[in-house]
């Protein structure tokens, strides 16, 4: 990519201020940008405010220090810590989190004011504590005028398929939790905003928030961290990756408004009583987080006393410590682990609706108090371990009604396809491939075909409502949907294909229940989780137990599709070899269907590696077919000896656009098509005939007339 034009920002500079506060020519901004390793081909967002006027701009990093000096001291000025998407512009927004192209640093904003850091010494001690955990001092510390803003640069934070925007947001969110835990030790409440698009003060400018104060910067001793180092050091102190970015959810019920009960509810007493023997069905940390959410919901709903809440926390700590010491991999309770779990529980409880909070407690209304529960040793749980007693010997077992006789077996329906000879109804499937193998394009193509009933690559498709869980965000999907509709001339109606633009953690039962309820509510017959890795945060892909749990949850979701005749598809990655399915073999063994996508040049080969019922072999050669005006593509079949659609000349795209604009529903004679393309469209006759030949070869057009009197129509198959 060529560097952005550094001259363009000059046109953004407005008259400098006449305020008497001087700004040095050397602002220190360039030093900070160097520490953040801004490159010439990246873009930097800058915002400023003069009076009530707030303006934003995006520019080349080399132009930003000059821009700050020319803007002058009469304006407050901020910059985006992380590079954003171009182009150079004034106005049009400074960029959102999904526009960030690199995680440049871990950073925080430590305000020195009442109800925050009482003084700068405390802020410095918090920086020392964070540095102790990270094993690295910050590289730069900015004095914002009313606080300190330290930066720990990240060496390899470029947004790629292997380190996604969601991964970067998760790492920054985890760092924010570390800041919160260290601040807690100093009895300080600090800024809780850790957003990828966050803007902070520009050194060398002036903070006009109250009395004008210069913003300055100092170099510190630290060097850059790698993503792996930051992840490892956060994990070491018990700040693990979590599926829910609570920062993106609205606050519903602030904990400051919660009131403890006078007496603990008997339902909650039973929950707490079961902590000592509860056995998690998923990972230990997700289990602890789930328990913390329930306890905090009990506090929010007035179901537990202050004293019993404290005792419940102790019981949770004891049980978590026991689980960590007695189950693999064995370890001790980490430094901030319980405190972080409780903070997450509180933050999630604050963001739940009233009904969601009650659902954490079984949807109950108060069931009476547990008088002196803790003092008397009352045992509200059954058998002390939450296990129901055996039914009486003369009672018919519940499973007896599920037995299938030989006659019943004969009457079972035959497997029916969702996409003929590709995906069978009532199954769970996996589509996997290396990055760039078009696995997400294929999954979306399947989803759109099912949602509209359009045949996929000539295979009959049963129309069902589709749900696409875009766990890595929905940023690219508007263009992808536009391209699909134009390319195949089929409209995806509202409600036919819905996109959920966030991950759902299959390791967290509460989230699985929410997704199951959504599937049942929407009667979705095709559900795509893209990717499985983003939908099992906190789980170990190499663990047969964790992957077995994921498979079990996929089938639970399948049960919620209409008549259990839907399909649940997980999109996954290859391992380090770039060829085999990543993680435990429990995934491959557990699902019904497995497809692999392998890219060679511009062509992707889609091959079925497993099919539980029916013939296994199935193979497709596919390639991207660019759709003009959408910035995206469709998938077209590639036949031997024919170029991939992605390799077609511009002439083919031009002729295809003419067809889509004028003849998509009616078709056209050869003379009509040639008139618009050559006489009106400016194509040469040679280019026109080559483009027409290309579109016929690729199967986009078919001649339904004769060689002497052709009539061309869009091929709907």
Automatic annotation (TrEMBL):
* UniProt xrefs under InterPro entries: P-loop_NTPase
Source species of the chain: Mycolicibacterium litorale
Write down what this protein is called.
AAA domain-containing protein
* Superkingdom to which the source organism belongs: Bacteria
One Pfam family it belongs to: AAA_25
